[in-house]
Amino acid sequence: MTVTAVRADAAPRRPAAGDPGTDPPHVTVVGVDAAGHPPPPAVAGVLARAGLVVGAARHLAAVPLPAGAETVVLGPLAPALDRLAVAVAAATPAVVLASGDPGLFGIVRRLRAADLPVRVVPAVSSVAAAFARAGLPWDGAAVVTAHGRDLRPALNAARALPLVAVLTAPGAGAAELGAGLVGWSRRLVVAEHLGTDAERVTWTTPAEAAARSWSDPHVLLSVGTPPDGMRVDNQPAAAPGGGWALPESAYAHRDSMITKAEVRALVVARLRPRLGRLVWDVGAGSGSVGIECALLGAAVVAVDRDPAAVDLVRANAARHAVDVRVVCGRAPDALAGLPEPDAVFVGGGGGDVLAAVAARRPARVVVALAAVDRVAPARDLLRDAGYAVEGVQLSAARLADLPGGSVRLAATNPVVVLTGERP
C-alpha cells in the first residue's frame, strides 16, 4: 500500500460562516490542467481552505498546498477513499487532485461509487489538449480507454470510427494500437507528456507507431477520412437514424445476389454488432450485412474472392458513409492474418471456410444457407467445434400489386440461418 500521510501541527481547517465552504460537507475534485496552464484563482481558494489534499505525487507537487493540511499520496485507492470518508464525516474540507477533467474516465466515478458527495472543478483534459495540439475539431469524436481493461474494444472502436481518442496504458498504447490498425486507412497522433517540458506530439502511421517505443503517459488519436469524424446525426456510434435491415434497393448488387432484408434483420441481430466489436463478413457479395454492422458501430472486415464484388462493397460502404475494410481473396486462405473477430457471418463458401472460421473461435458464427443439404453438415461442424447451435428457416412473402388494385404474396427464396454460440 503506497499511501503517505503528512500532518502539520495546525488543526484541520474549517470554513467560516458565509464563505464558499459552507456548502454541505463534500469532496472537491480539482483537475490539474493537462495543457500545463496554472490553476485558476477559484482553485487557489479551494486549496487554501483544504484540511486534506489527496493526489498523485506529481499533482501534489504541481499546486500550492496550504500549510497545515494533511496530504495523502495516492497508491491503491481504497485507503484514500476511507480517509476521504472520515474527512467528510468530520466536515473537514477535502480536495482530490486529478489529471485534466476528472469526470472523463477519471476518479469522479470511483468517488461517487463510494457514496462520497462530490464537487468538480475541471481543467483541460488530456483528450482536449491532444486534439488542440493536433489542430483538430473533436465534437464528433468517440473517447475510449484502454487503461486497466482489454485493449480490443478500444482498438475496434478505432477501426470502426473515423475519429477516436484512446486513453492508453503501459502495454496498451500507441505501439499496440498501431499494430492493430495496420490495414486500416488511418493517421495517428501520439501526444506524450502533455503539459510538461517533455511534451511531444507526433503524427505517424499505424505501421510506424507499431515499430516505435512511446513514453507514458500518452494519448492516441486515430484519424480517418473525413478527419472531423462528424456523422450527420451528431452521434458517433449510435444506431443509424435511417435504420437497418434496409431494402435491397439501398445497395448496389448483381443479379439480386444480396442477403434479403428479412434475412439480414435476423443475421445482424444474431451477430450483435456494437462499438468495440469486430465482425467478419465472409463471402460479402454486396457487403450489406457488414455495412449494417458498421452502421451499428462495429468494426468490419468484408472478404470476397470476386474483384467485382469487392468494388461493390466499397461503393456501398461509401454510399452509407461507413468504414469497412475490404479484403479481396479466396477464403479460407484470405482469412489468415486477419484480426480476431467477435462474430462472423458466413454468406458464402464451403465447409472448409466454415471450419477455418470456427477454428478462430469467435463468440458467434452465423451462417446463411440456401441449400438444404448443407444444413446438417454445417450444424455438425459447429457443434464439433464447441458451439451451441440453433437454426431457423426464413421464408418471407412480400406484398405485390395486381391489376385492379388487388395484391398477391410474392415469395422470396427460403433461407436457413444457423447461429453458433460459444458457451
UniProtKB/TrEMBL annotation:
<comment type="pathway">
    <text>Cofactor biosynthesis; adenosylcobalamin biosynthesis.</text>
</comment>
<feature type="compositionally biased region" description="Low complexity">
    <location>
        <begin position="1"/>
        <end position="21"/>
    </location>
</feature>
<dbReference type="InterPro" id="IPR035996">
    <property type="entry name" value="4pyrrol_Methylase_sf"/>
</dbReference>
<dbReference type="InterPro" id="IPR014777">
    <property type="entry name" value="4pyrrole_Mease_sub1"/>
</dbReference>
<dbReference type="Pfam" id="PF00590">
    <property type="entry name" value="TP_methylase"/>
</dbReference>
<feature type="domain" description="Methyltransferase">
    <location>
        <begin position="279"/>
        <end position="334"/>
    </location>
</feature>
<dbReference type="InterPro" id="IPR006365">
    <property type="entry name" value="Cbl_synth_CobL"/>
</dbReference>
<dbReference type="InterPro" id="IPR014008">
    <property type="entry name" value="Cbl_synth_MTase_CbiT"/>
</dbReference>
<keyword id="KW-0808">Transferase</keyword>
<dbReference type="InterPro" id="IPR012818">
    <property type="entry name" value="CbiE"/>
</dbReference>
<dbReference type="Pfam" id="PF13649">
    <property type="entry name" value="Methyltransf_25"/>
</dbReference>
<keyword id="KW-0949">S-adenosyl-L-methionine</keyword>
<dbReference type="InterPro" id="IPR041698">
    <property type="entry name" value="Methyltransf_25"/>
</dbReference>
<dbReference type="InterPro" id="IPR050714">
    <property type="entry name" value="Cobalamin_biosynth_MTase"/>
</dbReference>
<keyword id="KW-0169">Cobalamin biosynthesis</keyword>
<feature type="region of interest" description="Disordered">
    <location>
        <begin position="1"/>
        <end position="26"/>
    </location>
</feature>
<dbReference type="InterPro" id="IPR014776">
    <property type="entry name" value="4pyrrole_Mease_sub2"/>
</dbReference>
<dbReference type="InterPro" id="IPR000878">
    <property type="entry name" value="4pyrrol_Mease"/>
</dbReference>
<protein>
    <submittedName>
        <fullName>Precorrin-6y C5,15-methyltransferase (Decarboxylating) subunit CbiE</fullName>
    </submittedName>
</protein>
<dbReference type="InterPro" id="IPR029063">
    <property type="entry name" value="SAM-dependent_MTases_sf"/>
</dbReference>
<keyword id="KW-0489">Methyltransferase</keyword>
<feature type="domain" description="Tetrapyrrole methylase">
    <location>
        <begin position="44"/>
        <end position="208"/>
    </location>
</feature>
